[in-house]
Amino acid sequence: MHLIEKTTLFVKEKLQNAEGGHDWFHIERVYKNALLIASEEKCDKTVVAIAALLHDIADSKFYDGDETIGPKTARTFLESENVNSETIDHVINIIENISFKGGNFEKKFQSKELDIVEDADRLDAIGAIGIARTFNYGGFKNRVIYDPEIPPKLNMTKEEYKKSEAPTINHFYEKLLLLKDKMNTQTGKKIAAQRHLFMEQFLEQFYEEWEGKN
Questions:
Q1: Using the 8-state DSSP alphabet, how is residue 20 labeled?
Q2: Which of 14, 97, 119, 140 is least surrounded by Cβ atoms within 10 Å, i.e. has the fewest?
Q3: Is the separation of the CB atoms in 186 and 193 below 8 Å?
């Protein structure tokens, strides 16, 4: 069985009971986004594919903020499949440096493959899917949908971002609307622009309905 197939089966099994916005279907969408972007870039497509499949194998927000579990889980799996050490290290570096973390996270690693997987992951956080995931997670955490008395908090530190319990609408301003200008690749930027516009239209409609204007 090919490594991609084995990785897919491994991820499906690990995430079978995951929260709806971080489940196998999220991984599958990111994987497809990554392959689409990679087709337009000079890169190691195997690293892109494996990193996309394993990037959320153990999201820290579901493990009391522990950011080491995901990379450890991915490394153990890849070593069990006798993947060469260079590829493993590259994939782990991508997993460790892909998260948004409030937008103030300083990357300790750079590569074209990281740029691609990061764009693919961020594309799934915006647009129609991004909106659906945001409200799904807000419901999962029993958060208020919107409170006009609680303004978005911009420029949060990594720890503030991880501990935030703000209303779901605030997340648009604290993350989602910021992602368009943080894309790395031309393909990512083009797709993000379309999805960004959709979110702006959604918010405009949301506020009109909230105020009873239509």
A1: G
A2: 140
A3: no
